[in-house]
Amino acid sequence: MAKKSVASLQTGAKRLTKAIKMVKSPKSGAYTFVESIMDPANVKAFLSKK
Known about the structure:
This protein is mainly β.
């Protein structure tokens, strides 16, 4: 199960994106959320890597 959420943020002249993905812990099996604010070009790579 994967949850993806992407929000656009604008600060002055630079455009940023906040991406949130749900990651399953291999040790406990629990799901955690990983958040990152990045350039919109890097979102697809962030969501595809484990």
